Amino acid sequence: MKLSAIVASALSVLCTADQIAPATTAHTGPLSNQPATVTITQKSFRSWLNQHGKQYESQEEHERRFAIYQRNGQLAAQHNRAFRAGYTSYSMSLDGPFADMTADEFRSSHIMEPQDCSATTHKSSGTIDSLKAVRGMIAEEWCKPTEVDWRNKGIITPIKNQAHCGSCWTFSTTGCLESHVCLEKRRSMQHAAAQQGGDASLTDHDFDCTQWTGLAEQQLVDCAQDYNNNGCDGGLPSQAFEYIYYNGGIDTEVAYPYQAEETGTCSYKRKGKGAKVVGVYNITSGDEKELVQAVKEIGPVSIAYQVSPDFRLYEHGIYDSFNATSNQTMCHNTPHDVNHAVVAVGLGTTDDGRDYYIVRNSWSKTWGMEGYFWMLRGENLCGVSDCASFPLVPTSVGHSTPTNGGNHDENVAGSHMHSHMHNHMYDHMYDEASVADGRSSSNSESYLRKGSSNKEVEAEKL
């Protein structure tokens, strides 16, 4: 079977015939700046504490946290009033793990220092299509899906929790790299089956990464400082990918467990590796069309953006950084404002024509839509396309990276990608023993379907 046919067979499930409708917004009622009236009781607070397994050292601390919980309830109620009036496309609630924290506490414990996306502020001549051709993915044979959700392909590992450390950049790095390792393994299996004259398609039971514990964030916290990363104070996935490349690999989570703090010692051992990186593809800063193409046609992409403290109370819907008090967007979108890194794992459009990214966060499954959220697409909201990148992993199909002797666009190996021009075969990419055979079902889809349009999403009445 020809390689083009293999690719078409493997990826046809991602394609849809429908065209995306233009986004529309409509305010259906007046926006009041008056505080919302809501009653929040100690009983509801105790229920929330039990849900999240929290307890405080003193009654005084309990009362202080309850007062914060009440204020956050007022904030959520006011925001949800704007949500119901059509001014914003996402709702808030007190269900998540941060309802007893102030904005300043949340910022200092979970948000990294603003990062400078200097590595991606250039305009590159490389293209996604050139990259696909080099790596054995023939551009003409690819459909152009209007929607994609890589979670449905069995390549996304479970949601993790960064805890009280500004290490989101490490989770964005590992989450994206894990998916590309799994995606490449899937492609390798499809290619091998086709070469033997078998069926190149795979079922959910043939290949699955949804139970793999994945790669070592703690290694990045402890060891990647020479690449302009700063442990719990922040970093960038593009710089972390470069560290992994020059280091020769990254360990597994099992071998190098996460501690949610800077240990002061790099404990990486070179005997075994969880994954390798042979190059880094940086999306041109601010080029959201290229970001969308990469998510559609390549796989998950690490993104960084400026998160506002109100985001800690996100429940469901399309995040648009709307402030119900000022009636304005809270975040900025310059390459110097990004303070949180996540992974774009899909694209979607609501019934009323609003485009969004499906995004994997690192604040546990108790936050948002079982650890995921939707983010407004098409406006470079909060700088979502200013700092986007994804890793190139060893491949047994095509070339790992462009070669100067080929007929492909050599410029793709220029400022877009940082790599040596050689071909690594698929070996030692991850510990296969740590991948479970069975695939578990997730309830996140019910949350996502619930938020498919503003008409279908009801804000929690606090």
Task: Describe the protein in words.
It is globular, with a radius of gyration of 22 Å. A hairpin with a 5-residue loop joins β8 and β9. The chain has 10 helices and 11 strands. It has a single domain, classed as Cathepsin B, Chain A, CATH 3.90.70.10. This is Peptidase C1A papain C-terminal domain-containing protein.
Secondary-structure blueprint of this entry?
Elements: H1 3-11, H2 42-52, H3 59-84, E1 90-92, H4 103-110, H5 128-134, E2 148-149, H6 168-195, H7 217-223, H8 237-247, E3 279-282, H9 288-297, E4 301-305, E5 314-319, E6 322-323, E7 328-329, E8 340-349, E9 355-360, E10 372-376, E11 389-392, H10 444-450
Parallel strand pairs: 5-10
Antiparallel strand pairs: 1-5, 2-8, 3-11, 4-8, 6-7, 8-9, 9-10
Helix pairs in contact: 1-6, 6-7, 6-8
Domain Peptidase C1A papain C-terminal: 144-392
Pfam family, one: Inhibitor_I29
Domain Cathepsin propeptide inhibitor: 45-106
